[in-house]
Amino acid sequence: MKKVIAIVAGGDSSEHDVSLRSAAGIDSWMDKEKYDVYIVEVSRQGWLAHLPSGKTSAVYRHNFSFKDEWGKDIRPDYAYITIHGTPGEDGVLQGYFDLLGIPYSTCSVLVEAMTYNKFSLNQFLKSFGVKVPEDVLVRQGQQVDAQQIVDKIGLPCFIKPNGGGSSFGVTHCKTLEDVLPAIEKAMEECPEVLIEGELKGVEISNGVYKTKATGMHVLPITEVVPKTDFFDYNAKYNGMVEEITPARLSESTTKRVQALTSAIYDILGASGLIRIDYIISKNEAGDDVINLLEINTTPGMTPTSFIPQQVRAEGGDMTEMLNAIIADKLPLDI
To answer: Cα angle at 134 between 139 and 168, to 5 degrees?
Structure first.
């Protein structure tokens, strides 16, 4: 019998609809000869399995099951999580599946929680020598002195939710007067706000996965050239960006970035497919410096997202990659 795969999408953040687009992309690449595949949409209003007929079926959360069109009970064997934001990228859903004994595609609870919290991730990786922007964390209810922040971080700076993605709630602040309104805007997305100094340079993104069958597999690098002020939502999803894969980096810098991507994956003890974003700046000697921006443990998976671009650039196949990731925790012979 075919194994049943649930592509778990949606979530409770502003990225709900973006996640559904990723789910559609993953569904299109799934090997339907090996798996029966259902998209399960998660939200506070309820969990719904999307059936082939176009109907939906309520998911019973005590055992992650639902009924198909003919009333048959379906309990997925594996969860491919593609929620961008809570509860799929912060460890909450991973803990749920751990309790039920259902294998899933992403990192563990601990790794998900730490990578979702940008400030905690920065402090952790700094201890391993990874370069990150100068940053300050502000929590809801905390007294904020904009001048003190600017004195430490400088201007321009970026103010963003400490948890979340897709550039929701992010502001590129250029004046002191921008700071407090930007913090309020970011607080609408998350009760913790990260303030980072601006780094001038080339923004890049690098996907990576590791399985027992493939070993470490670092993908080609994508260079990001936004047509907007920065790589915001409009640039990401409305075509206001030029994305160049492979990135226009020197061979030595390319190798250094890919080696760092591999090292960070192992430092974290990551699992499945992740994407790491960097800024390549220059030091006083004119040499390339690799600065970490953030880590995405459930990266975008629409046909035009970075990961599919990188797989295509190396002549790979999305279906083969997904098969390898799924089989790492769900061998077909069990």
So the answer is: 55
